[in-house]
UniProtKB/TrEMBL annotation:
Keywords: Cytoplasm, GTP-binding, Magnesium, Metal-binding, Molybdenum cofactor biosynthesis, Nucleotide-binding, Nucleotidyltransferase, Transferase. Residues 8-153 form the MobA-like NTP transferase domain. Coiled coil: none annotated. This is Molybdenum cofactor guanylyltransferase. GO terms for biological process: bis(molybdopterin guanine dinucleotide)molybdenum biosynthetic process. PANTHER family: MOLYBDENUM COFACTOR GUANYLYLTRANSFERASE. InterPro entries: MobA-like_NTP_Trfase, Molybde_CF_guanTrfase, Nucleotide-diphossugar_trans. Pfam families: NTP_transf_3. GO terms for molecular function: GTP binding; metal ion binding; nucleotidyltransferase activity.
Length: 184
């Protein structure tokens, strides 16, 4: 049963190789980007909040096994989490707003997963025994299958169009150039 409550997991354990420095620690209006995302998710109404990645100051949960990508991070961080709706949010989308997240949460009434057509993250996931077993099975596969997109497909997740006026907020920053553009 979906209660309308939602929890958030901020994924921040990537290599940031295209950025050349840790994306989570980029300065966003005087604070690390990860701190800003934590603040945003609390303000937007997350019931429980977790951080995936080796960030003790943010109670981050390190990956149990490195190199498994976002799906590996999700697995490590949610292994003992409660069932229910989890929004999986990347650290590198500082312009995300509540208006992007709530439509994904609402889809948990009817879907086990949901994301926007433009990006696999943010993704909403209705965590339960079945979804946990599927995540385990995907992680046991060769690298091609270990992705959030594979999880979304296997759950027959809903894919929705982002309204034009909100598209800008789905910009992420993988490179210094993208970061400069977002900071303007
Ligand atoms: N916990 C965890 N998070 C990850 C991992 N790989 C990527 N992420 C996170 O997932 C989101 C999307 O990752 P990408 O931007 O594609 O990857 P990245 O490693 O951060 O950047 P690149 O090295 O440039 O590909 C970001 O918020 C990353 O921090 C991982 O292995 N573990």
């Amino acid at each position: 049963m979906f209660t309308g409550k939602w929890n958030a997991l901020i994924l921040a354990g990537g290599r940031s190789s295209r950025m050349g420095r840790d994306k989570a620690m980029l300065d966003w209006h005087g604070q690390p980007l990860l701190a800003a995302q934590v603040r945003h998710m609390k303000a937007f109404g997350a019931t429980e909040l977790r951080v995936s990645g080796d960030y003790p100051e943010f109670l981050g949960i390190p990956d149990r096994q490195k190199g498994l990508g976002p799906l590996g991070g999700l697995h490590s961080a949610l292994v003992d989490a409660s069932d229910g709706c989890w929004l999986i949010v990347p650290v590198d989308m500082p312009l995300l707003r509540q208006a992007h997240l709530i439509p994904l949460v609402k889809l948990m009434e009817t879907s086990a997963a949901a994301c926007y057509r433009e990006h696999v993250l943010p993704m909403a996931l209705r965590l339960d025994r079945h979804v946990r077993a599927l995540i385990d099975a995907l992680l046991a596969q060769a690298s091609g299958g270990r992705s959030l997109l594979a999880l979304h497909h296997r759950l027959h997740g809903s894919t929705i169009e982002c309204p034009a006026e909100l598209l800008d907020g789905l910009r992420n920053c993988n490179t210094p150039e993208q970061w400069q553009a977002i900071c303007k």
